[in-house]
Every structure is written in C-alpha cells, then in structure tokens.
C-alpha cells in the first residue's frame, strides 16, 4: 500500500500539472530569495559595517571591503540552505491544487475533497516549515548521541512529515478530529510512509519537490486506507 502510493506519486511528478505547479513554486521561491537577499545585504550595509567602523575607528578601508565580501559569502551560503525550506513554504500554498489533480486523475469516480481556505493553507505551509526546522534541529542534537547518528534524521522527520501530510490529505474529506484519529489508528503505516518522504527530503535538489511528492503520496495512501476502512465497516 505504501509503495504503491509512493510509486504513483513519483510518476505524477513528471506530469504536466505537477510541472506547472513546480515552475510556479520555483519562480515564487526565487523572487522570495532575491527579496530576502537584498533586504539582508541592505541591513548589513546599514547596521553591521557602520558598527564595525565605530568599534574599530582605526580600521583601514580595505578591511571594510573584506568584511563586506565575507558577509556576502555568508549570506550566499545561508541562501543556499534556505532554498528547500522556502520552497516548502511556497509549495504549501499549492498543495490543494496537487491533491485535486491526483483525485480527479486517479479517482475520477470519487468526489474531490474540499480545498482549504487560503489562511488555512498558509498556516499549513508555515507548520511544514516549522516541522522541517524543528525536526532537523532535533536530529542534529541526536547526532551527538553515540549510536544514533543519521537514523535520527529519518526517525524525527519520518514521524513529523508523515503526520502533517497525512492529516492534510485526510482533512480534505474529514473533520480535523476525525483525520487525527484515523492517523493515530494507522500510526505505523503513516510513519513508514513518512520515512519515504524523509528519504526524498535527504536528496539535494530532489528535496525541492518534497512537498509535491508528499502531498500526492498521502492522497493515494488516504484513499487506500479509506477503502480498507469501508471494507472493515461492512464486515461488522
């Protein structure tokens, strides 16, 4: 069930609707990063360099230039680290579009889910960013524990990503409490699916597609679990 969902989601990543969403996501991400770059460089020039000149009044002019170059390198490195998280936030705004494409294409006989309000989508994308940041901070701390190492990254992110994206897929058809109850009932399955998402997240460049892959995969998984739930109810 999990691998079927993952395979279907991976194949859909190269479909025209998914490519269109990814292009929009990447374009908005680039705009956001460019704006952030100019904002941070202006802040450095306005605050940091005058502060250094005040702190070190005898500082030669070339030292200021050197400080500016070092700051630019540090900012460029920071931008590189922010690409995946910022992409995740932007992609969160299009998750309902991805889910609807999957539902209409692969389940034409079923009703499509309810799209989340814009504010709810924004909250979900912000939560996803928080999950990624928190998960990686915890994983980095656990890397200091002997015997844990890289497994910490997959365990923490597998749990958090599986939970967030399964509940997203389920809440298109269910209330929030019902979606959470269903996720808890299939906690093991959702966690294993989350591990696949974490593996996707760990691959450079490919990780830019993580939100789209995760949303599509969890739509398929929720559909499969819903069928199982109906069959189980009918046997009672």
TrEMBL record:
Cell compartment(s), UniProt: Membrane
InterPro entries membership: CysZ/EI24 (IPR059112)
Transmembrane segments: 21-42, 62-95, 124-144, 150-166, 186-206
Main location as per UniProt: membrane
Record keywords, A-Z: Membrane, Transmembrane, Transmembrane helix
NCBIfam families per the UniProt record, alphabetical: PRK12768.1
Name this protein carries in UniProt: Sulfate transporter family protein
Lineage of origin: Bacteria, Pseudomonadati, Pseudomonadota, Alphaproteobacteria, Hyphomicrobiales
